[in-house]
Amino acid sequence: MGLQKDFLWGGATAANQFEGAYLEDGKGLSLVDKLPAGKERHLPLFEPQKHLNDEFSFYPSHESIDFYHRYKEDIALFAEMGFKVFRMSISWPRIFPNGDETEPNEAGLKFYDDVFDELKKYNIEPLVTLNHFDTPLHLVETIGGWRSREIVDHYVRYSKVVLERYKDKVKYWLTHNEINMVAHIPLIGGGLIIEEHENRNQVIYQAAHHLLVASSMATKVAKEINPEFQIGCMLAAGEVYANTPNPLDVLAALDKNREQYFFIDVQSRGEYPGYAKKTFKDLGVTLEMQDGDLEVLKAHPVDFISFSYYSSRLESADPEENKKKDAGNAFASLKNPYLKASDWGWQIDPVGLRITMNQIYDRYQKPLFIVENGYGAIDELNENGEIIDDYRIDYHRDHIREMINAVDDGVELLGYTSWGCIDLVSAGTGQMKKRYGFIYVDRDDVGNGTLERKKKKSFDWYKQVIASNGENLE
Known about the structure:
Blueprint: E1 8-12, H1 15-18, H2 42-46, H3 67-81, E2 85-89, H4 92-95, H5 106-121, E3 125-129, H6 137-143, H7 150-165, E4 172-174, H8 186-190, H9 200-225, E5 230-237, E6 240-242, H10 247-269, H11 276-283, H12 293-299, E7 304-309, E8 313-315, H13 319-322, E9 340-341, E10 347-348, H14 350-364, E11 368-372, H15 390-409, E12 413-419, E13 439-441, E14 453-455, H16 457-467
Parallel strand pairs: 1-2, 1-12, 2-3, 3-4, 4-5, 5-7, 6-8, 7-11, 11-12
Antiparallel strand pairs: 9-10, 13-14
Helix pairs in contact: 3-5, 7-9, 9-12, 14-15
């Protein structure tokens, strides 16, 4: 069977990880603009009570890889690879610097006009995320980010402005990036600084409700502006396996899978799932809702399900066994003895992508879109100045093969955008040395480098994959 002829091949990025120009042309501060690099990154990212006003030695988002000034060069490289689609995000504080203004920043809007026009020149379809870990810092400091109901109105106002502005330039939109990450990295996922005395789950799930309502309201606005818009949700996905056939381990894995699907159950089906009531009771959570919230969720579900996939996970019901978990990324997992891992401890499981795709499609029966998948590694230039990244080619080959197998299983798939198609700043570590791209950027972890772009071996490999619509993976 294989992939449909109009399959959307491309790559994915995020504004706060590659645009730079963090205060240029009227842009305000994003919460990410206050996050440091490297070893200093851990505390503010994974301990959200750590305040954002500490001073650090280097802030990687401030210049990133300077797409803001180099977008024509980069888009030309994407076109050379044959991209049909480019996933990017709009920086919320580039449009509304503080997040709560009534009028947008025209210079910010003009920048994205120019980017979309450049993409159109090469017949590359933009896939645009409205909120990709880019909450305006002012809203974090003044109202507590997504814990506040007030932020819903600010987000909808912002969404309406950009949806109206680009109604003839963009077809595919995502409301929030990896919405379930609010439960795992609350600061980046929801602008949440949770104090030690608070019920962490109460804060997280109240913020989640606001994110979900905002998504449905933005979907409503989008369809009113252009009924042809395709609106998607976005999940940080990866099937959770049971550690053993012990039914208690299977039940523990079921609970972990529900933990991630909870958000998409609401966005796709338009209502809180049946298990939510028990979940909230067990966690001591009481949601505050406004009149009409449940109705707007029901009336405005998304059109398609997009997700990131990097690895699967392993779960046990035994607390002692779970002490062996390793947090290779934001999701801690037991080590799967059947899998190898990357330098950062992410377990490599191509078949897990096929399993995940089938599970999501079985659950929702809506078109899927893989909008992040990739391999973070340390790339070294050889004596000839080349990057021979066969390990990245192997990773993508194996995953794309299983992706095609899932389509043959009957899964409806719109497209595939590899994460970090050009090297960019890691969201988790703030590093540049954790590289994902098919294009190398001369930049190190402390801001040194020329920012010169260089094609890796994987560049030509991905180019042939796209040209053959996935038939030539060698």
